[in-house]
Design brief:
The complex is a heterodimer of chains A (316) and B (293).
Chain A: H1 2-30, H2 35-40, H3 47-56, H4 63-75, H5 89-124, H6 128-140, H7 145-159, H8 172-206, H9 209-216, H10 221-258, H11 264-273, H12 277-305, H13 307-315
Chain B: H1 2-16, H2 19-25, H3 28-51, H4 83-119, H5 121-134, H6 139-150, H7 154-181, H8 184-191, H9 196-232, H10 244-250, H11 252-256, H12 261-292
Helix pairs in contact in B: 1-12, 3-4, 3-12, 4-5, 4-7, 4-9, 5-7, 6-7, 6-9, 7-9, 9-10, 9-12, 10-12
The chains are: A mainly alpha (316), B mainly alpha (293).
Chain lengths: 316, 293
């Protein structure tokens, strides 16, 4: 039944999170030298700070106990202290979370509206519309976010001056203006992929017999598209949209750096450069959790849209 | 219908029998152009530093961000180095990283795919669900984590990406290996007493080769984008080594000063090579699938 599918998916979700968190914690021991030098990033710390670090990470206890304490602290929102900022990692994350969240949300909106929209148009109107969508998507699918970023900055902020090139902005409308180019840069290659899958799915459905029957019965085209084509094509479209949107979370780091946005990803990169391991661990944990959660939601949505998926899991 | 497909695929096989040249011819004009672009990039990756007209590493700050002149057709970068020379020399570090990532991910992924498909049963179940869990780590994130632990550099980033891509390879190839495992000739070889290892190495993997090549080609494009992104972030190839990703980040200030040429030229190199790998990979994929039907 559906409950069994949900239970299985939930179990997998928890296993994924446990293993991902274990890898992130274990990074401490993979680093050359001892965990203390990894945490301090090779800096010489006063002995009082060393004792604090030792106590915080329970370094005198066995490895698995240390992992457990760390995970428990993380679940309580306590992710340690940044060596370079001398600040709580959790509060640093909380302050920057909305930049990354807003950017990913904005980009997702662009992907859903323009990706699905252009895919449907290309599928239903062969000819010029279809060809132009095909050509533009095969180029933009290969356009990395940072290349898109420099092209957008060159054209729309330096040449035309329509949008600011760098920074977050203050207030809602200013933020929307500041986030428009970054969101487009983040969305553009995923948008192309979603458009292509949408086009293929809609075209496949439109050729089906039940659609031909509906048309020959004289049902208005609008209704045929909405009820008979889009509903069935929704399954692959949902999957590819979900997967590409989840992948934006990691790529956001690149876009934030290119546009000097004050987000989680940009900070993750700075922390990796300065070897501030507590920050790297904390942000990685947050990003991986978001990534895994979105993927799980997509899988469940998929089962809701296509009941055969949940039924199939029972047969296995 | 199915016989028509069978005949078509046999025709494809017959055409591809002429070696790699015949294979390329059957990918059409777009495939040929893509292969040419890839060939040029590969030649530059080997000989690029030799054909560079000027020293790509020698700064002369007085010429920083000066536009194209007769002898320097792409102008100078932020440290006054010849942009064309840096692009040519940069092909090396831009191509070698993706090559390492693809080789590592394909070797590991193929091994896992063939072993799980051959063994089936509990081994398959455990390994497959393990791979599902490994999908939890996006490649770029794993590479940033690796840079934080082992220090920034191409090696750490390439190893991290190879690990992140591996589950994807294993998942795609496992299906093909399972199909091959079910073929009557495999059962016949088993009856004749051939060992599992020799059947896998001498029959199953060679029969999967078109799919493996197609997958590797597509993956090269992804690896190129991700590694360039990591170098752009400052966690991959380190300046002053010439690299297309690094060139974008170090010349980004020029964009705001109204001189975007060096950054855009490096971006164009990346996009051109990635499009070539994508197009060729897609064509090879379609062929591999048509042949396996």
């Amino acid at each position: 039944m559906r409950w069994r599918f949900l239970a299985r998916r939930l179990l997998m979700l928890i296993a994924s999170l446990l293993i991902a968190s274990f890898v992130i914690f274990g990074a401490l021991y993979l680093a050359p030298g001892n965990p203390i030098s990894a945490l301090s990033g090779g800096r010489a710390l006063p002995s009082a700070s060393l004792r604090v670090l030792e106590a915080r990470y329970h370094l005198n206890q066995p490895f698995f106990a240390q992992y457990w304490y760390w995970l428990e602290n993380a679940l309580h929102g306590n992710l340690g202290i940044s060596i370079t900022l001398q600040e709580n990692v959790s509060s640093v994350i909380a302050a920057r979370m909305w930049t990354t969240g807003g950017l990913v949300l904005y980009a997702s909106l662009i992907i859903l509206v323009f990706g699905i929209g252009s895919g449907v148009i290309a599928a239903l109107r062969p000819g010029v519309a279809d060809t132009s969508v095909l050509v533009s998507t095969s180029i933009s699918a290969a356009l990395p976010s940072f290349v898109a970023a420099i092209v957008l900055i060159t054209v729309f902020s330096v040449k035309l001056g329509w949008f600011p090139a760098l920074g977050n902005g203050t207030g809602f409308w200013s933020s929307v203006r500041h986030f428009t180019l970054p969101a487009i840069a983040l969305a553009i290659s995923s948008l192309a992929i979603v458009a292509r899958v949408t086009r293929a799915a809609v075209r496949e459905e439109a050729d089906r017999e039940h659609v031909q029957t509906a048309i020959s019965r004289g049902i208005p085209m609008r209704q045929v598209v909405r009820r008979h084509i889009l509903r069935n094509a929704a399954i692959p479209i949902t999957t590819v949209s979900g997967i590409t949107i989840a992948s934006l979370i990691a790529v956001a780091a690149v876009v934030e750096t290119a546009f000097s946005l004050n987000g989680l990803g940009a900070y993750l990169v700075q922390a990796a450069e300065s070897k501030d391991l507590a920050v790297v661990q904390g942000i990685s944990l947050v990003l991986v959790t978001a990534f895994v959660l979105i993927n799980a939601v997509v899988d469940v949505l998929y089962a809701v849209l296509d009941p055969r998926v949940a039924l199939g899991s029972r047969a296995q | 219908m199915s016989t028509a497909i069978g005949m078509a695929s046999r025709r494809v096989q017959a055409r591809t029998r002429g070696g790699s040249l015949g294979l390329l011819r059957s990918t059409g004009i777009a495939g040929l152009v893509s292969a040419a672009v890839i060939a040029v990039a590969t030649v530059l990756a080997v000989f690029g530093p030799l054909v560079a007209p000027y020293n790509p590493d020698l700064p002369s700050l007085g010429q920083a961000f000066i536009g194209p002149t007769g002898a320097h057709i792409l102008g100078f970068d932020f440290e006054g180095r010849d942009v064309l020379s840096r692009l040519l020399a940069g092909a090396q570090s831009s191509m070698i990283g993706p090559l390492a990532v693809v080789a590592g991910a394909m070797a590991l992924g193929t091994l896992i795919a063939v072993v799980t498909a051959w063994r089936q049963g509990p081994v398959d179940t455990v390994v497959s669900s393990g791979l599902d869990i490994l999908f939890a780590f996006p490649g770029i994130l794993l590479a940033v984590l690796a840079a934080a632990i082992f220090g920034a550099g191409l090696t750490a980033a390439s190893v991290a990406l190879a690990i992140a891509y591996m589950p994807y390879v294993a998942r795609v190839l496992r299906g093909a290996a399972l199909r091959e495992r079910g073929q009557p000739y495999v059962a016949a070889l088993e009856v004749q007493g051939a060992s599992g290892t020799s059947i896998c190495l001498r029959h199953i993997i060679p029969n999967m080769l078109p799919l493996i090549v197609a997958q590797a080609t597509i993956m090269f494009g992804w690896a190129m984008v991700d590694l360039a992104a990591i170098s752009f972030l400052g966690l991959g190839v380190q300046p002053p080594t010439p690299n297309w990703g690094v060139m974008i980040s170090e010349n980004e200030p020029g964009i705001l000063q109204g001189y975007p040429l060096p950054a855009l030229a490096a971006g164009l190199c990346i996009v051109g090579v990635v499009i070539a790998f994508n197009v060729l990979g897609e064509r090879l994929f379609e062929q591999a699938q048509a042949a396996s039907r």
